Structure formats: C-alpha cells, structure tokens
Amino acid sequence: MSNPTYTVIFYLFAAITVCSAAFVVFTRNVIYSAFSLLFTFFGVAALYVFLSADFIAVTQVVVYVGGILVLLLFGVMFTNGIMQTGQKSEVFHIVPGTFLLAGIIGALLYTFYTSHGWMPSESTLQGSIVERIGFETMSRYVLPFEMVSILLLAALIGAAFLARFDKSGK
Amino acid sequence: MEQLTTIGLNHYLTISAILLGLGLFAVMTRKNAIVVLMGVELILNAANINFLAFSKYNGGMEGVMFALFIIVIAAAEAAIALAIVINIFKIFKSVDVSSIDSMKE
C-alpha cells in the first residue's frame, strides 16, 4: 500500500516501538525501563493492527499491558522497595553485548535485503480476522487451545504456590 | 524511494530484527533479573511480529494462531519467572543474577 498517510502513521508507530525498546535496554533505572516497556507494547500492538491482526492487537494490550507489565512493575516495586525508585541496575559484558547487538541486527538485515526478495501470496490477509480466528480455534487448533489453557492454569497455580509467604514466618 | 514509501514485509522484519537485538542485549548485559525478563518479553514480541507479518503476506491463518499461543505462553512464563525472582529475593536479599551462585541456603 502506498497511501502517504498510511506510510507516515506506520513510520510513527515503528519509531515509537524501536525508540522505547532502546530506552528500556539502555536506561539504568529499573522503573524507567518498566514504564518505557509500556510504550513498546502499545507500539507493537499498533503494528499488529497494520498487519490486519486486530484481535491479536487487542489481546496484546489486555495480556501484556494489563497483565505482564503490571506483574513486572510489581516485581520491581517488591524487590527494590517502593521508596527507592532511584535504584540503578548494574551492567556487565558491555563490549561483547554491543558486538552481539550489532552482529545480530547487521546479519539479519543483510540477509533480508540481499536475498532475492520475498514473494507475497496473491491473497494477503485483508480486513478483520476475528471470525476466522474463531473458526480456526474451534476446528483445526482445538487440541492446542485446550492444552494451552490447562498449561496456563497449572502455571498460574504453580506461581501462586511458589510466591506465597511461609506460615513459619521466615 | 519506492522501497521506503511502500510498506512491505521487509519493514516488519527490520523492526523485528531490531527488537530481537535489543532484547538479547538486555539479557546479556543487565544484572537485575527483572530487566532480563523484560529483554525476554522484547524477544517474544519480535517473534510475534515475524509470525504475523509472514501470515499476512502468505494469506494463511497459521501465523496468527501461533502468535495467539505465544502470548498465552508468555503470560505463563512471566508469572512463573516472577515467582522464582521473588523467592530468590527472599533468600538472597537481592535480584542480582551474577551474585546468585549457591544452590543451598
């Protein structure tokens, strides 16, 4: 699609995603990282809308922003103490890490842009896919769907069991 | 110029590659266990963007369903990992991953 407005909005959300992800990684303050991750998740959700996966975008906002991010913030507050928001996180292995960062991004981009190009199918996904997700979940993917629901239940019970306070008052 | 103004598969793959690199960098260089978890979330998001991009330009539903399952697994992973981190904090009084070096209390 080469609609100028579409392109500009895409680049806006791409910039939000990449810049806030870089801020998550490069800031030393753990609280700043957690709040910057919020913008990354919203930016990624917007990119999902561009990929015509509207249901996945809403799920991303509900699960990541409403669940995982709150859980991470809870972890930050719990382990650093609410009053010490200026807590800095130490870093190590900066030089090999930078080489890894540059190497991964460089190698992947080199491969993407020098290969012979992807050939998109004639029938790309268009419009809303909520109905198709419903059909697929209840027909082809019904076994993985049930298995993942049991896994999630077991994982949440296990997490609540692991994180509980001891009655012995240790 | 044509490549820049027409949004195609390569744009999404570029964003995904950058997110993957940043996530790996966080996992490798940070000492705070919670920031390491944030790096893992970035990597999972990068994989999700890839799945959805290939699914859109292929026209099938496989990538979309896989992305949905990845989100569920990520929620389970975050809950378990946070529980483990809280236990580590109770025992070691710190979440510095390089200072946790004994398996016995």
Instruction: Please bin the fraction of helical residues of chain A.
Output: over 70%
What Rg of chain B do the Cα atoms give? 18 Å
> Can you tell me the CATH class of chain B?
Mainly Alpha
Number of helices of chain B: 4
Low-pLDDT runs of chain A = none
**Oligomeric organization of the protein chains:** heterodimer
Report the CATH topology name of chain B. Helix Hairpins
What does this structure look like?
The complex is a heterodimer of chains A (170) and B (105). By secondary structure, chain A is an all-alpha fold. Helices cover 72% and strands 0% of the residues of chain A. Chain A has six helices and no strands. In chain A, helix 1 (4-26) runs antiparallel to helix 2 (30-50) and helix 2 packs antiparallel against helix 3. The radius of gyration of chain A is 21 Å and the shape is globular. The N and C termini of chain A lie far apart (61 Å). In chain A, 23% of the residues are buried. Chain B is mainly α. Chain B has one domain: Helix Hairpins, CATH 1.10.287. In chain B, helix 2 (9-29) packs antiparallel against helix 3 (33-58). Chain B is elongated and about 60 Å long. The model of chain B has no long low-confidence stretch (mean pLDDT 88). Chains A and B meet through helix 1, helix 2, helix 3, helix 4 and helix 5 of A and helix 2, helix 3 and helix 4 of B.
